[in-house]
Amino acid sequence: MPYRYRGLGLLALLVVALPWMAWRFALHDTFAAWRECRRLERRLEALVPTAPMAGAAVPSAVEAPELILSGGLLDSVRRFAPAGVHATGYVPAVTLQQDGIEIHTAQLTLTGPFAELLRTVDALERRLPACRLRSAEWQTIVQPRTRRPQLVLTLYVQQPIFEP
Questions:
Q1: CB neighbours of 91 closer than 8 A, spacing ≥ 6?
Q2: Contact (Cβ atoms closer than 8 angstroms) between residue 80 and residue 131
């Protein structure tokens, strides 16, 4: 490009290319995410159920049995877990009591092979809709007697309980 048109070429790049690059590499994804968020908000507003009438049936989530303090979670783990998975620790607690809602939390420690522990976690997530897995911590420890490594999974499971 000749020297006398160099400034005009740079100005054209600044006016045309800079906004295009800003849109393409910085703003396009943000705008697309904002648009998708707005679409999901409208969809969610359409799905919000109306308030139940007086005397109407209570939703099934409220009627779910308490599983953590009663030991039902531990029984479920024993029922759903493959043969190689063993429960080595169970600590239930009430972590929140407020406005008619209690949050029961359990620290559940399991040992076994990796694949079987994953199957157990999958079964708990699918078959216990009243409980939610909040955290999972994987560790390897060395067994004192055999000096072999052992995989330990610590799960933190919570269940909201609605008091009438």
A1: 106, 107
A2: no
Token pair 């910085």 in the structure block, residue:
26
Model's pTM, two decimal places? 0.60
State the burial class of residue 131 (Cβ atoms within 10 Å of its Cβ: 0-12, 13-18, 19+).
buried
Distance CA 63, CA 61 (A): 5
> What single letter denotes the amino acid at residue 37?
C
Task: Pick the closest to residue 155 from 96, 98, 81 (CA basis).
Answer: 81
Which pLDDT tens digit goes with each residue over 9-65?
Answer: 889 889 998 899 988 888 888 999 999 989 988 888 887 665 555 555 544 445 678
The single-letter code of the amino acid at 147 is: R
Query: Nearest 10 degrees: CA dihedral of 46, 49, 51, 53?
Result: 130
Helix (H, G, I), strand (E, B), or coil: what is residue 48? coil
